Amino acid sequence: MKKKKLREEIVFFHLFGSLLTSGINLVQALSYLADFDFSQGLRDVANEWLKTVNEGTPLSSAPNIKDNFAPWIIDMIKIGEESGQLDIMCLRISECLEVYENYMT
Description:
By secondary structure, the chain is an all-alpha fold. The protein has a single domain (3-104), classed as Receptor-associated Protein. It is 76% helix and 0% strand. Helix 1 (3-21) runs antiparallel to helix 2 (26-35), helix 2 (26-35) runs antiparallel to helix 3 (40-54) and helix 5 (71-83) runs antiparallel to helix 6. The model has no long low-confidence stretch (mean pLDDT 94).
């Protein structure tokens, strides 16, 4: 994974988890992510997730998720959704990616 893409994913999941932890609802948090200054790829992910959630489908079942994230990230998102702790799982994903980034440098 490229360093810039990895750093961007760390920020993406940290921001997502922080927004949810602060009490912002899922739809609004995804709207913020879609408008944030991320690469077009991550903004597209947020927009696709927003569409998916508005259709009543879980994030972990979004059509583009397998193209953009590793299977362990998808599993953690699914666990977060099922347990009602998506905010915590997003923060954990961010932490795991940061550990990986530190290991690779």
